[in-house]
């Protein structure tokens, strides 16, 4: 039904007000299918709000968000999107595999899925450990495992590597790369610029506006720097009148 040229996510004129302030000021962009798109920007710039709008849990003040050809928040998207929030939602009093069985049942995912996703995130050795006793990195991977249940077409990950050591971060990015090679679309937020280089596409946010929407190579060329952190800073300088 959908052509492969159709983007996984299309956002037009998205405005969101939280509290008394407008935090997203009319964003428009597309996320291509089968790629890793990074959503980057400093703390408080609106990454989580944008992600919430895409997964359909944010009240929006204006604009349109279309995900896999349907309006964001549509019931049928629930099975097609894997969403991992910043605060891992794992039951502390259930073991890892019990958590996975529970969420698989809620999603109507196959009974073989918990074993598959445990393998994918490398947590087989902790299957019977209680959620409440996992380390930070193990908890992040358990949360990622939940989002992989049911083989979603789109993975939306809000800062999945925050607080992880470099080895674990590298492993997780390799996992993301493998999923993208299998055709899964990944939108991943981060405030760590060195992770930007691992994405095929970058959306840089600042104060609720898009500063750049480009490939890492395009961004480096445009800002004449090899370093994406420098590129980000140069884009900010360009915007500010001298
Ligand atoms: N419930 C709320 N009520 C009022 N303002 C809010 C609320 N939630 C978030 N905000 C504000 O909206 C802005 C965007 O927040 P958001 O969580 O989207 O940023 P972020 O880029 O994800 O930040 P971080 O990287 O620190 O998680 C911030 O200025 C924040 O203070």
From TrEMBL:
Coiled-coil residues: none
Q: Where is the ABC transporter domain?
A: 9-232
Organism expressing this protein natively: Herbidospora galbida
Identify the keywords attached in UniProt to this record, alphabetized: ATP-binding, Nucleotide-binding
Q: Read off the SUPFAM superfamilies from this record.
A: P-loop containing nucleoside triphosphate hydrolases (SSF52540)
* UniProt-listed InterPro entries: AAA+_ATPase, ABC_transporter-like_ATP-bd, ABC_transporter-like_CS, P-loop_NTPase
A GO molecular function assigned to this protein is:
ATP hydrolysis activity
Name by which UniProt lists this protein = ABC transporter ATP-binding protein
């Amino acid at each position: 039904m959908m052509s492969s040229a159709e983007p996984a996510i299309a956002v037009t004129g998205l405005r969101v007000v939280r509290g008394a302030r407008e935090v997203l000021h009319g964003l428009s962009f597309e996320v291509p299918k089968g790629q890793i798109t990074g959503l980057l920007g400093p703390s408080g710039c609106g990454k989580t709000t944008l992600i919430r709008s895409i997964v359909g849990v944010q009240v929006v003040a204006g604009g349109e968000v279309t995900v896999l050809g349907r309006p964001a928040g549509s019931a049928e998207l629930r099975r097609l999107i894997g969403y991992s929030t910043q605060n891992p939602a794992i039951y502390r009093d259930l073991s890892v595999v019990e958590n996975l069985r529970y969420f698989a049942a809620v999603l109507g995912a196959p009974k073989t899925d918990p074993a598959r996703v445990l393998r994918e995130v490398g947590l087989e050795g902790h299957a019977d450990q209680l959620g409440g006793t996992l380390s930070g990195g193990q908890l992040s991977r358990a949360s990622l495992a939940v989002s992989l249940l049911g083989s979603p077409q789109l993975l939306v990950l809000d800062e999945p590597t925050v607080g992880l050591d470099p080895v674990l971060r590298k492993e997780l990015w390799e996992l993301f790369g493998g999923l993208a090679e299998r055709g899964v679309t990944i939108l991943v937020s981060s405030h760590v610029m060195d992770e930007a280089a691992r994405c095929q596409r970058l959306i840089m946010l600042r104060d609720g506006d898009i500063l750049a929407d480009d490939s890492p190579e395009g961004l480096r060329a445009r800002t004449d720097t090899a370093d994406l952190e420098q590129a980000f800073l140069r884009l900010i300088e360009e915007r500010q009148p001298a």
